[in-house]
Amino acid sequence: MKEARQFREALGLTQEEAAQLLKIPKSRIGMFEIGQRELPVKAKLRLVTLYHDLQKQEALLQSATNETFEKEAYVAFLELELLENQFNRQVLERKLEQSKEKYQKSLKLSRLTTLLEQDTKETEKPSPAFMEFLKRKARNGMQKHGLPEQAKLALKLKSYHSFQQELEKELKQYRS
User: Fold this and answer.
1) What are phi and psi of 62, to 5 degrees?
2) N or C: which end of the chain has fewer CB within 10 A?
């Protein structure tokens, strides 16, 4: 009887060990397994109880292992997100600084063109085409890197900072 043998093998016992555990002769176990005899009710009940207890324990162990694995995977995901967020923040901080520098440069160029138009003698003034080029360059730079663009970058930076704080909170919660 295949099913009878499975109980004993699931417990990891030999016929002799099962016989000692159930306090019955070894031949009785052998006959039970081939289907020629039944085990005493007390022995059969003990065998089935041990089998079910072992199955429950294995299920709990498997569940705990799965939970641990999932928790570790989630922590690894959070750490990766945190690193990506820090990298994106650094890139955005650099962009914001560059935008501020370019805006200041364009502002200075605009002031220079105004100064050249007002305070220079006609003979010392650059050509009108060059002056127009400088004005256009200053205007385009101020539009491209102006306060709205800087505010947009600053808001993105704040959102990255908030996201980082949330990631750190979540990571702290799962690490402890």
Assistant:
1) -65, -40
2) C
